[in-house]
Amino acid sequence: MAETFTARIWALGDDIDTDIVIPTEYLALKTVQDMTPYAFSPLRPELAAQIQPGDVIVAGKNFGCGSSREQAPEVIKALGVKAVIAGSFARIFYRNAINNGLLLIECPALCTDVQDGDEITVEVGKSITVGGRTYPIGALPENLLDIINAGGLVKAMRKRNGLD
Amino acid sequence: MGMTLAEKIIASAAGVESVRPGDIHTVELDYLMSNDGTTHLTIDMYNKLAHPHIADVSKLVWIVDHNLPSDSVKTAASHKKMRDFAKQNGIAFYEGKGVCHQIMMEHHVRPGQLIFGADSHTCAYGALGAFGTGVGCTDYLYAMVTGKSWVLVPESLRFNLTGRLNPGVTARDLILTIIGRIGANGANYKAMEFGGEGLKTLTMSDRIAICNLCVEAGAKTALMEADEVALDYLAQRGRAPKHVFHADPDAAYAETYEIDMTEIVPVVAKPHFVDQVVPASQCLGTRIDEAFLGSCNNGRMEDLRAGAAILKGRKVADSVRFLVVPASGEIYRQALEEGLLKIFMESGAIVMNANCSVCWGSCQGVIGEGETLISTGTRNFKGRAGHPNSFVYLASAETVTASAVAGEITTADRLPKLED
Amino acid sequence: MGATFIEKLLRRNTGIADAKCGDIVTANVDRVMIHDIFIPFVKEKFEEMGFTEIWDPDKVVLIYDHLVPASQLDDPRHHRIGNEFAAKYGLTHVHRSDGICHQLMTEAGYVKPGNVVFGTDSHTTTYGCVGAFSSGIGYTEMASILGTGTLWVKIPETIKVVIDGELPEHVTSKDVILRLIGDLTAAGASYCALEFSGSTVENMTVASRMTMANMAIEAGAKCALFTPDEKTAEYCAVELTEDMKTLSGDPDANYLKTIHYQAEELVPALACPSQVDKIRPVSELEGLEIDQVFLGSCTNGRLEDLRTAAAIVKGKTVAPFVKFIVTPASRKIYLEALEDGTLDTLAAAGAIITHPGCGLCCGRTGGILTDGERVVATNNRNFLGRMGTSKVEIYLASPATAAACAVTGKITLP
Prior knowledge:
Structural class of chain B: alpha/beta
Structural class of chain C: alpha/beta
Largest sheet of chain B: 5 strands, parallel
CATH superfamily of the largest domain in chain C: Aconitase, domain 3
Helix content of chain C: 25-40%
CATH topology of the largest domain in chain B: Aconitase, domain 3
Oligomer: heterotrimer
C-alpha cells in the first residue's frame, strides 16, 4: 500500500452530507453512472462536470454525514475521484467507502490550508505534501485492510464463496 | 325554429335573441377556471402584455390540483408563481382542496352560466346546466384581460335516455358505451345534450361523470337540463341558478340518439383510446399492477361507497397497488365520517389527499414499464399514467375495485362471495 | 469496573464475556431491514457475491416506503425487483404500502429489546427506543449479512445523556433531541453510542423515545439506547424479563462523557437552515413568514404527534396560502388517527393528508419546494436541497411548534 500519487484537488467545507453528494431525487436512477452528473449538485452544480479522473476531494469535518446511501461513495468513485481527504468522516459513509474500495484519508489540518486547483502529493499511510508543507497522515485500521486488500467487500465475499 | 341548450346559453351570454350553429358570437363569461397544469404559462404571457389588466377578478378561480403535494422543483416553481399571483391580485385560490372540476361544482357553477376552463374536462359543468368548455392559455388570457371571448356556436347532438341502469352498472359504463359507439371524434366541435326520462334516474354524481367524459368524444361541451335533482344540489349549497334553460321541442340537432339504459353492461375502455370500449367480460383475467379509484370523473361519494362496499371484508391483492383518491377535501371528510376510508385502509389500499393523482399520471401512482393500470380516470392514452410502454384500462368504480381485489380485470359480481 | 449498555448487549450477542468498547467483534444479526430505494442494489450485490440463499429469510424485512406512492417512472421498478427478490429467496415479511420502515420495524414486532438489527438507512438508530442495538449500513454490507447473518462491529464508546425533571408544556422529546444535537454538534457523537436515562426519559412514551433515538444519527451516533421498561414491553408485546432490565449502563461504566439536562430549562427549539445542529429557540425566530408545514416522518409522524397537532389546530384553519401537509408514519397510525377523530380535526383545519410513507422527508415528492420558500418540518434533516432547491429554507421543529406555525403562517411558539 505504499503508494504515492500527485493530484489536483477540489476543496469543500465541513459537514458535506450525503444528500449533497447525491440528492435523493436521483437515487432511483438505474445505475450509479447515471447519477454522476448530479453529484454535489445542491452545493456546486457545476462541480461534477469539472472533476477529472484522478482528482482528489478535500473537505473539513464530518464528511458524508447523513443518509446511509452507498451511492454516495459509489458516485464519487464513478467520477474517477482518487481519494477523499477530510478532517473526519461520518461512520456509515466510512464503512461504505471502504467496502467499495474508495480511499479515505483523515487529515484535519489540510482543508483550511488549500483551495480548488492546488496540487498535492500523497504518500498513502504516511503524509500529504502541498506547496512545500507536509502533513502527516495515519494508516488504516488493520481489520479494514483485509477488505481493502480483497478489493472491496463484494470481492471478499466472492472469495469466501469460492468464486474467485 | 327552436334552440338547443347550448344555443340558449350562448345567446344569453352574447345578449342576442337567438343563435344558430356556425355563428360566431362575442360572449360575456361567468367564470374563468385555471389549474396548475397551465396557469404558470398564462401568467408568463400576461406579464409580457403591454398593459396587463384583469377585467373582473371575481370571475377568476385558480386551483392547484394536478401535482399535489408537489413532486418536483419545477412543479413547486409553477405553484409558487400561481400562488403569488393569486395573492397579489385577490384571485379565488384553492390549493389542496381537490380536483378543479369538483371544486367548481361544489362552490361555483350555476345553471345557465358560460364558463371557460383551462382544462379539457371543463365540460363537466353541464351536469348543472352550465356551458363549460376547455380552452388553451391564449384564449384564457384574452378572456381574463377583456372579460369576454368569442364562441363558435356548436351543433348539438341529442341523447335521449330511457329506462334505468341495472344494479352493478354505472353512469361511467353508460358514457363509456356512448363514446365507444360514436367514437373519439364523434362529437368533435359539437355539444352533447342529454335528456329524456332516464336522466331523472341519475344522481348529480352520475351526471358529472357523464358530462365530464364527453370531451373524450371530442365534444366542445356537454349539457343537461337543470332539473329538480340539479336544483336540489344547488340549493343545498346555498346557490341559486343564473338561469334555468330548457331545450326547445323544435330545436335542431345534428343527430339524435336513443339510449336504452337497461341495455348497458359493465364495460372497459382498452388501451390506448377511450373509444376502445368492450364489455368488461371480454377482458377478464387481464393481470393488473395498479388500480385507481378517483379523479373528477369518479372520485365522489357514490364512487367511494361503491368501492368500499366491494372491499369490505376483502383485501387488495398483494400484487396490486390500489390508490383511492377522493375528488375533494369535502369528499375526503365525508368518506372518513362514513367509515369508507377505514375500509379502504384496512383492506390495504393507498388513500391519498384529494387531487388529480393517477389520472394525471405524474406525481403519485406512476406506473412503470410494461405495467397495467385499471382506472376510473378520464383517459387511457399511451403513457398517460407513467411509462410510455404501459397500459391503461378505464372502467367504473365497481369494476376497478373488484379488479384490485382479484389482481386481474374482473367485475364485482364475479368475485367470490364473502362468507357471513 | 461496570459495563455500558452497548457493551452488555454485545457481550450477550457475541458470547464474549469481556468484550469492551474499542473491540472489534462479529455480531450475530437478529433482524435486518431493507427499504425500496436500496433493494435493487442489495439484490445485485448479493448475487454478485455468489450467495444463493439467504441465511434466515424470517429475519429479513422488506419495506416499500420511500417510493410509495411512486412519483417517477423508475420507481415501480424497485417494487417489482423487491417482489421478485422476495419470491426468489422466500422472504415473507414484505410491506408494500404500510408506512415508514422505522415505524414498522418496532410497531409490527420485528424488533425486540436486546436485539442486534441493521437497516439500509441511517435512521435505523430508531430501534434503540426499545433497547435494541440498531444501526444504518450500506447495501454492500447488507448483502453480506444476507449471506452470512453476521457483521463486524467496533464496540462504540458511549456518551451518557441524563435528563431529569418534567418537560414544560409544549416542550417535547423533539425539542430535547434538537437541543442535544445542537450542543454535541453534527459530528459530536460520531462513532459513539448515546445512552439515555433520567426521570424525564423514564416518563416518556416509547413514541417520544423513538423520536430521540431516530435523530441520534444527526449527531453522528452509531446507535441510541433506552433501557427497556414496562412501557417498552407492552409496546413490543413481550414480557419484561429480568434479563431485559439489566440492559442499562452501570454507574461505574467507562463513559466517554456524561451530559446532564434539567427538563424544566428546555424550550421549543428549531434546527435552522441548513444544518441539524444549528439550533435556536423558537422564541428568537417568531414572526418569520413560512410557506409550508410538514408533519410526518419516522421522527414525528406518530399518533401522539398527530394528536398534539390536532389539539393545536382544532377549531382553527391553516393560514391562507400556506400548505399543511400531514403524512402519518404508518397505516396503523393512520387508522388510529382516523378512529379517534384526529384526522378529521386536521382535515377540517385544511390539512392535506397523504398516505403513510416517507413523503417530503426523503425529498422525492410530498410537497417539494422552490427558491425562496420556507418550510417548518417535523422530520430529521434540513440539509441543503433536501426538500427542493438549495434556496429552500428548512426549519426542523416539534409537532406542536409545526402546528402552531401552520395556523399563523409564521414561526410561532406553540
